[in-house]
Amino acid sequence: MRIENIADHPALVEIVARWQWGEWGHLDADDSLAARVASLRDQTNPDRLPTTYIALEGDEPLGTASLVEDDMSIHRELTPWLASVYVTPTARGRGVASALVQHAVGQAAAMGVMRLYLYTPDAQGLYAKLGWQMIAEEHFEGHPVTMMAIDPAHGLAPASNPQSR
After folding, report:
1. How far apart are the first and last CA of the chain?
2. I need a labelling partner for 4 at 20 to 30 A (CA). Which of 12, 87, 109, 156 fits?
3. Single pTM value for the model
4. How far apart (Å, rounded) are the C-alpha atoms in residues 73 and 68?
């Protein structure tokens, strides 16, 4: 398995957009498949935000993860975010999500990010194993979620006070 920037695989943008739309499209009435495609086409910066990574085995896409400025409208003061971590059902349980998250955190460190955030409704255990620390529990888009953070430069959970970079 290898992880590359989606900019190097423009033919996969629509596939990834369909994954995201299928997984999270129901959460936002203003979202659409076309909006997801357009957003992914803008997330192709190799060394700055926003950017998206894709895990591949040969030519087969296995999963994706993004680094974005903003992923939680009720916490616009926090930036940047790990977002849209998704692994295809047939590739789950093989470490793809962990590899994508670790890759994204490493890339954030290379970009000089001091603190990286995410929110998750159900994958707290995965992120905790990778060094992320819970910073809050919230209700977002009608669902309970856990907000987490990490210090990318050290791969460590930050102090408990969330702040922007």
Report:
1. 31
2. 156
3. 0.88
4. 13
Q: Which distant-in-sequence residues (6+ apart) come within 8 Å of 68 by Cβ? A: 43, 49, 50, 80, 81, 83
Tokens of 125: 């255990």
Residue 69 in contact with residue 49, Cβ under 8 Å?
Answer: yes
Q: Does domain 2-150 have CATH number 3.40.630.30?
A: yes
Distance CA 9, CA 25 (A): 23
Amino acid at 38: A
**Can you say how many angstroms the Cα of residue 118 is from the centroid of all Cα atoms in its chain?**
7
- 42 pLDDT band (50/70/90 cuts)? confident
Lookup: tokens for 40: 């992914």
Structure confidence by residue, pLDDT tens digits, 80-114: 999 999 999 999 999 999 999 999 999 999 999 99
